[in-house]
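<amino_acid_chain>
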Amino acid sequence: MAWLGLNCCGNEQEPEKLNRGTNDEIAIQGFVKDWGRVAVTTLACVATGGLLLLVLTWRASFRLWCTHRPSTLDVATKILCTDIYGQEWEEDVASDVASSSEITKDGKVFRAPPEQPAVRFFVNKKIKYVWDNSAQMFIRLRSYESTQSLQGIYNNRHGLISEEVDRRKKLFGENLIKIEVLSIPQLLWQQIKNPFYVFQVYTIILWCLQFYYIYAICIGMLSVLSIASSVWETRRQSSILREAMTSQCEMTVIRRNGTGPTVMSSRELVPGDTVILLDGMALEVDVALIDGAAVVNEAILTGESVPIIKVGLSQADNPQQIINDSLHKMHILYSGSEILQLRAATCAIGVVLNTGFSTCRGELVRSILFPKPIAFHLYSDFMKMLGCFVVLGFGAMAGSIYMWLHTEPPATLQEVIFNSLDLLTFVIPPILPATMTAINVWAQRRLKKNNIYCVSSNYISLAGPVDVVCFDKTGTLTEDDLELACVVPCSEDGFFEKECRNLRDISAEQDLLRIGLGSCHTLTHYTSGAAPHNLIGHPMELRIFESLDWELEERKDGCINPDYGILTPVLLRPSEEQRSSLEVAQIKTFPFDANDQRMTVVAQIKGSREFHVFIKGAGETLKQICHPSKIPGNFDEVLTWYSLQGLRVVALAVRSWSATWHEVESKQRVQLESEARLLGLVLFVNPTKRETPLCLSILHHAHIDTVMITGDSLATAISVARSCGLVKTHEQMVIVRTNSTGSSVRRLEVSYNVAFTASAKDDDKIEIAEKDGLVFVMDGHTWDDIRRHDRKLLAKLALRGRVFARMKPDQKVQIIEELRDLGRHVAMCGDGCNDCGALKAAHVGVSLAATEASVAAPFTSKDPSIKCMDLLIREGRATLVSTYASFKYNISYGFASLIVVMILYSIRTEPSDAQYLIMDLVLITVPSLVLGNTAAPQLLGVERPTRRILHPLHISSILSFLLIQAGAFWLCFWFTMQQPWFEEFVFVPGQHPHSPSFEGTALVIYSFYTFINGAVCFSHSSPYRKSFYTNHILTAYLLLATSTVIFFTFFSGENFLKFMNFIDIPDAGFRWVLFLGALINLLVCLVWERLFLYGAIAEGLMPWLDRVLPPRLPYQKLEKKIQSDNTWPVITDPNTKREAVLSLIQPLALYQEDNESNNQVLMMKKLDTTRDFTTDCQPAPEDHYTQLKGPRLQMQDSVDYPLLGRKGSDVVSSFSVPLSRTENGARAGDQELPKSTFSPQNYQGASAPYPAVPTSEADGGYQTLDFSPKPAAVAAARPPPESHYVTIDPDQQA
């Protein structure tokens, strides 16, 4: 029995695993040919008429066990590869000559020994695995350079010798991302061997043998159309991918062959080659940049259109580090990117790291060619149910054989065989594959009209069960553009000074701040196209540079600048209008990296001997870099304060060196930055997109959780999450922090502190919300700590987490995977840049891109707002429910027909070909194909469709419908035989078609109504689709079909009866009984299906069972465990120890009278390190918050610590002031504000969903906003963000 695979292990070794812990992990098992098994399998294939041969193509493991025997890997000729998703591949082991080629194992490099000239290998998913004789294992092939240190790559920049090039060509092959577009016959074979189409071939052959040509041709045509559609779509996608990803170009290569630089095709490159890089070059390999800097466009890889600066290995921070994609992105130019421009040179050199499918673009193509399988039960459930139906079909066949063999007179052998085999065609509807294709096509067309495009229509139904949606922040929830708010300078003695709105007004004492802002960036001139001197770079850096009004000059002569005595790639100076002699040279740059969360520039002022190292990045990161005495003591409080207003905060620091350039250049980056001094904070406004709050509220109404995963600071993320409505009003955010303690044994301390986003006094009693209302927020550091030390706690935090800040790209993927492991159905929406991994990891990934198709995610929306999520989920639900409805309809009509046929078999007759034709072609085909044309509703409902077709409701729906029809058919059969005019049918063996009978005529006509009734019953829509009558094709067809069947019921023309093989029923009253019986049948089915089954049962009993029965899904079990655990979480009492968030939202603002200007003045007290926030201002009730705007609010010049404000007549934009209405006007803080303070021209009212209450112009345009949150949400009440305010006329209705 072992040869059949029943003993997969036996005495053989367990499968070995490669690429452990990665998405490319595979288990491999060796096999060698077994001619004995081949002979037995060949005989079995002949005996089964080739059916076993077809089955062998369905599963690689079964095929190998039938033709090979297991062996050790060192002698195997076949390798069975099984990935982490259970997918199987059969790969051939080949040999190649590569006597001294480099092979790597676990990051170590070794050479194949000279005595083994032949290297054994196999290729799986475009990855080459070579045999390591010393380890007796296949290992993944990597280039020698990809495991070298940065210094080692730099030292090998002089090129390869010819012999080494030849050896590497044999091992690595041609540098080409070869995407095979299968031929039409190959694609046809892939489709035809599908079990569905195999059964259709069986059906068509059987019907043709029975001379049932018309419907056989129709099914054949539908199958051909379905297969052709799949083949065309597959070839189209493959052709588009090959056109986009397969290319070559001419490149200049430096090799040590004595001929100098050589121009050759990029297909000839091998790892280790040294290439010359030029402006405008499209890269076909991954290249380590040796010297200089390059501006590259990586949009094809990430979807990010902002140019990126890459710098050479000569500027590497730690040259001894082994090169790593995640750590050294700033030095690597990836395949698929375009060099927009080289900085400070006309050319540069680079060393090839990877070629072909080992490149970054190759990995992207592999993820498309071998996608993660759709982790959805829909199709597996289909196969399980169809397997059960086949068993029932065989049972019906056995019953049919018995009935036909025990007739008097007996039936012919041909009748017994054909009539029995024909029953199998009822239990598996042959039109089902075409039906599923049609549903997806309808849905894809509707999505395309709304500018949502998908890689494959099969993904659409995955959006139906989504119960949690994760969002990126910048560019997704908020706008892409950043507006510069102001700069908060920091003095040399470590105190924050008055904010500065105009960067040109920075005081002379803060020259280094201005110089740092003007030089710490990666901006460059883009010298091609219509705008030859257009500055390009990150929008944030562009805003700063434009505000400074500086000029940038790039030197590409490669000569030493005599003014500095060194190379100066970039010179920066104020514009001529400023009449300043200041000039700054940008000498060395460490571009921004998401892992480091900072960028660094080494600059020198003209005429100065000092070198200044400017560091710009996240405030938390710079705090760790700066010397403690050179940052303000209240740095954390100030940073959090600004972040809580939704501002994006960037810190700037400097470290000055009085040394020679050689000394500075020899230092590592960490040394250059050490003991820096904080120069100040730069504040940016990143407004929320107008559509965001409404879209989030729609998702919340549908009981879909929303999560933010961002690289921004925690405080900013908390503020944006609350202001845009991502965190619900009744939810209380709890900040999770970790601290590792202990010397020999490390212990992880986890603290939980309530995050407050509303004003509160020190003596206010803060109530902690019930456990249902607690949600968690954390940063990437906390996530990593808990993920390493406590996976059970990680699952709890992932389930209840709402805000994840300072998250790196790989951490975003981890969050998505954790949610999936908990059984959540996850959608991810991002801009396609750092979110690529997360978009692919989610069940539904949506990239907000401007193009119709993006390789970054399965779905692409041309609309940059998140409202596409609402539409996609609605469409996914409609598609999923349409799939269920069509499946139920197809199965029901098949079994209903089977019941009719079995009843007729009992009297030894069957429907004629014409009757079958009306059933199959006229009454069944059209509803099956157009049921999916019913569109999604306008609003996203609360109820989610079931994830599985095997749900008790769906099974009950099918079974109950069939039971009702079986009873109706039997009643019709019995009632017919009771009529006085009834004559018993006489069977004549071999007669085709059989003589017409009263039983057959009555049953077939009644079954016609049944098929129409089934289409009406199973097309019910609410709440997942629009009403079925909005499906105009289906409605028109049902009316036409009903009219046709009524005609069949009452018309008795001789030719018509002869064609239909009907017998004339002499009693017109009996015909009316058939019609009324069908009508009653419809009413009974509708009442049962819609009012009882999907009404009382679905809305009453099932929710009750869900509450009383034990939870099934992992996240439901975990949620129940959290609710019952009274010991977790242990939240720090906010009334004794409050998080910094609470302290900073003390009412710091107060209003005083400015005697000189006679205006109300906004003042703010200075913060100190003890967090003593005493103030005379009394807060207003927390349910009356709004933003006070108007030219009468000014910032007083004498205030010792103004946190944020405007000069003169500008508006205070980001500070919330408590506002309450009084009889004569309003009270803001402790000051009375008359109605005249609010002029119609300056008042900004709130837009939906925050209603404004306008008053008449006679009242001075005064208005009051009353948000009135529920009592439980008072502690978390926040005003709407500034982006929600629009200017309204006092007379305008809200």
User: Anything to note?
Assistant: The first strand starts at residue 16 and ends at 18.
